[in-house]
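Morning - nicotinamide-adenine-dinucleotide inputs below, output right after.
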Amino acid sequence: MSTHTNVLEMAREQLAVAARYLELDAGLHTVLASPQRTLIVRFPVVMDNGEVEVFEGYRVQHNASRGPTKGGIRYHPDVDVDETSALAMWMTWKCAVANIPYGGAKGSVKVDTKKLSRRELEKMTRRYTTEIGQMFGQYSDIPAPDIGTNAQVMSWIMDTYSMQAGHTVPGVVTGKPIELGGSEGRVEATGRGVVVATEEAAKSRGLNLNGAKVIVQGFGNVGATAAKLIQESGAIVVGISDAVGGIYNENGLPIRELFTRYQGREGGIREYKEAQPVSNSELLELPCDVLIPAAISAVIDERNADKIQARLVVEGANGPLTPDADRILQDKGIFVVPDILANSGGVVVSYFEWVQDLQNFFWEENEVNNKLTRIMRNSYAAVETMAKAHKTDLRTAALIIGVKRVADATIKRGIFP
Ligand code: NAD
């Protein structure tokens, strides 16, 4: 995606496609094309050197017809209100496809966290939480981690909100550490869901994953977990990368060893020497059965889509394929499992975390993983059935399901007053 405005346009184009299939009422289409509520805040933070810096942040609630809004908080220098709105809209469809009782939201702050000390990061997080706190609430809007934020940031958000509420409110945010009401299985949830989606897609395409060759772009939360779990289920991970670059070995890579020895090191996984070093773009074009882009958006576009050799592409990241790339892969007969289906495991286990927090009753990891697997399989089956019914691809089918569930909820509730 070349500009952020395009991301919102892209989200609106996708909505328009689903609206055509559903013959959606024009008024309802207009309602769904824009967020329900947007807050833009500018707030000061006294930095470690005593100077005041002003940050800009957003919180966008796209649609709350099916329940409280849910969506991560991104800290990144390139965020803007359009990108945040697009991501909020995608969260609405993602929650609806998984059939969990949430609407979509997203928050962000324009900041390069690498330039902040830990103390500055904490102060900025607490002030941002205070500025947008009127939108948060365990029954209204529940944030979670996204790019640039993590369990520690969620802890500060929970604490800040709780200080102002006068009592501890763990259910106001998910992705927390276990000690503060986090859920077993949350850290691995997105990668685990990606692997379940891959298994379902492989089954339907007649591809045996046992011995299948897999390439994963990204070695963070999603990529490393997906690589580890897919290898454990019998596939061979032949290529993987992080921001520094990738490595390839057609006989397979020792994912667990890479994870314990090289993740987070300055030279990254490139320090592992029993493999051929490749660039991130070369990695995507290598021969494999399954390609899982699990790093950043728009890595496959009209320039390289024709060179992709995988049979299945499973979107671990949000938006790794541009619409042009989508069309090219489709023409080549490459089967794509879209992000709003493939990477929904994270928000599903966030939902489990919230349920556990509201009940003050916590589940064992097995229970979390089994429930997650069931939801992922059901979502996959529903999307596949819709794709067959409309003779369309999984992305369009997932959007049709998501938009239809939200539209139905809106119609049944009626328009107040
Ligand atoms: P992360 O920060 O843990 O990991 C990102 C990985 O990508 C790191 O290994 C990093 O080195 C690598 N990377 C960064 N820039 C790169 C580049 N230019 N080329 C190749 N690799 C690069 O993030 P994450 O949580 O794993 O998220 C990855 C993607 O998955 C994002 O698109 C995110 O929005 C999406 N996602 C995450 C979750 C979740 O629960 N974590 C849920 C749904 C979707």
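Note: The longest strand covers residues 52-63.

O.
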